Please model this.
Amino acid sequence: MKAIKNKIEVPEATNLLWLLLLIVLPVAGIWLGSRFLDRTRLDSPYRYNLIRSSSGTVTLELGKEISFYQQRIRQNPDGGLDRALLATAYLKMARASGDVSWYLLAEQAAQESLAKLPFSNEGAILASAKVAEARHDFAKAIELAQKAPSDNALGISVTANLAMGKVDKANQAAETLVNRVPTLGSLTLQALVEVAQGKDKEAIQNLQQAIAIEESGETGSSVWARSLLGRLYYRQGQLEQARMLYQEALRITPQYPPALLNQAQLEIRLGNYKAAEKLYSQFFQLVNKSPTVYDHVVLRGMARVQDLQGDFSEAKKWRTQAEARLREDLIGFGHRRELAQLLLEGDRPESVAESLTLMQAEVSDRRDAETLATLALALSRSGRWQEAQQVMNQARRWGIRDAGIFHQAGIIEQVLGNTAQANKFFRLAQETDPQFNKQAQKALGLGVGLGVN
Model:
């Protein structure tokens, strides 16, 4: 027995060596594996290889910029240019956070700047144009931008004309801008126009090129381009590619609202309702109860998540909050389309009637594909199917490729008895997004769009 025991005993030094190997090898393996995975990510064409901001740094730096110009204004109360620069800083903060109050401050600063310096004050004019666009007063935004011709003015012309359904004018402005300065921002704007024209392949190429030439100091445009590209891949059913882009945008700028909310929509589409709910909760923690231009997206999304999980009473509470928030927005930021979309989710005849009234007013100012499709839906729910068909034809006239719009057009044709045409639209929906199914339909309308919201 003693001989056997001596045979299986391990000397103390050997024992220590094995212990070290058991600890070091797994750790080394993990380290090497992580380095390999990181290198794989670094080789990705969408990887952000520039110096990125840590959580909260973007708004912190913008806060310093705002404080700087506020101090200069205190030292020089009659300074018009400083107020214009302050308005621009406010707009940067509004874009980064979505907080409505920054738009209001930008508007006030721009007006004060123009009062102090009525002439040769391009910065204040453009700031006023961007606030008008945020308020969905697109005609005013274009009118103001034309008074201060510049690259920034051309950018406003692209997005505002797209919102008004004037894709040809938007395309002209985008081409002029890209020919003048092919930058991250200008190529992204051109991609927006191409999406409206159904040129998704060209849009992806432009966004890829835009990301490839990004430079330091363009963090806002970098996360915007990736979020738009992710949104485009999502619409094609390439969900993992979309997820990677959203997550990369969030790695660059943590809690970036469009990427965060579009990822929540993706989780809903995949049936990961708890994950979507968690993302919406992150947004609430981020904004700390300050009103934002994204509130209606979050509240509506939470309502949809509760509905899909069978908690209808909780869903009703969220939907009521979303409706109240959107009605407040009607005064300042004109979210008539979004309110109509929310009302159309219910079964009340009075809600359908109100949504139709809202959309009939909305299309006088806004005539992009999503707006026209929402009007068509309101007409369909009102039993006015032939009018809905005519409006859907207008929504598709520039060639947009969107599975949801194709599916909606197919339903209208089906109800009107046009079976062959209906089947054509259903095929187009599947060709556009091979993963488009009933689960995908449950997530429709919940993301942050490709253009002005």
Summary: The radius of gyration is 26 Å. The domain at 53-148 is CATH 1.25.40 (Serine Threonine Protein Phosphatase 5, Tetratricopeptide repeat).
